Amino acid sequence: MNGSDFFKERGKMQKFIQYTPTEILFGKNTQAEVGKEVKKWGGSRVFIVYGGGSVKKSGLLAQVEEALEKEGLAYEEFGGVKPNPRMAYAQEGVEKAIEFGADFLLAVGGGSSIDTAKAIAHGVANPDWSLEEIWGGEIILTRSTPVGCVLTIAAAGSETSDSAVLTNEETRKKGGISTSLNRPKFAIMNPVLTYTLPKYQIACGIVDIMMHTLERYFIPNTRNQITDEIAEGVLRVVIENGKKGLENPTDYDAMSEIMWAGSLSHNGLTGLGRAKDFSVHKLGHALGAKYDKAHGATLSAVWGSWAEYVYKNDEERFAHYAKKVWGVEEEDVAKAAKEGIRRTVEYFREIHMPTNLKELEIGEVSEEDLRELSMAATLNDTVKLSKIKELTAEDVYQIFRKAAEK
């Protein structure tokens, strides 16, 4: 089956609304513009959200604050955000931001800092509601506080996305909310700011970018050639430049490609005209909440098992992916589909990412643990996952079990 035949046999492109309003400032030294950007978007009292001490040690935080001072803007720091950002810590940030009188949230860091800033922004604008109520879907957001970001990690794509993810430590649940109010006003993207990242974080980011694209790609019964071409291009670029960036993290061209691909992978563009899945993310969130492992690692640890479990329900889609992204020339659809899965898993292994639960290094995973994970991923079997094959809690258990036994 050639490319044109594939699209003739698929369903029609679905109607969609495209809304990607985030202003991008891309390139070297763009962090110097942060004060002007905040001021342009109406900010006067800036609540700066960041993670560990790296932004201080690198001097980036000082540069950001200097740029704010030049524009006469008041600011307050809120550091200490952790990977798999905590809801309780974000709620603490809400209270401090309100006390400070913040009218603008500025995230300096990666997805965890940006998602925390988004959460604080919602809390500041809606002080009568807790973040637990907002994340629990008990209310519909109609307002928020503006957010901007200075990106230091190419991974989550939160700098342009409509989503934000938090972990509730009390309930041990990790989940997100999607709303146009999550879109940052601006994103400053200087690839040089990624140069000091550990290679493990770079690799986790590569996986996350690929997953944000793949979760929108494996949707059955769609006919959307231009969206597919964009998604396939993002995947090929990340795969190629991911290796280069890991070999030399100061390769500006490679890190630029990865950073821009990260934004494109999660701003909605790679999924326009079709439904959205994110079933693998549900599995990864369950693992992240229980074991507090890096998000990208939890995704690579289960993707192969998920793909092997569902691919027979849409072999042609997986075969198409194999040919367009990995250059597989096998004409037999079933063989091509399996080869595409194999090459994806092998790539994860090549960049030193886990491809099963043992490699995720979470210790012994009991039968009880597997059942608990499957229930967490499906909200106690109330939500069916995946568009290719409807997955119940029992199906998800089988996937986790497969990932545990590899």
From TrEMBL:
Listed GO MF terms: alcohol dehydrogenase (NADP+) activity; butanol dehydrogenase (NAD+) activity; metal ion binding; methylglyoxal reductase (NADPH) (acetol producing) activity
Gene Ontology CC: one annotated term: cytosol
Lineage top rank: taxon: Bacteria
Gene3D superfamilies, alphabetized: 3.40.50.1970, Dehydroquinate synthase-like - alpha domain
Keyword Transferase: no
Record domain Alcohol dehydrogenase iron-type/glycerol dehydrogenase GldA: where: 21-191
PANTHER family (UniProt xref): ALCOHOL DEHYDROGENASE YQHD
Designated name of the protein: Iron-containing alcohol dehydrogenase
Classification of source organism: Bacteria, Bacillati, Bacillota, Clostridia, Lachnospirales
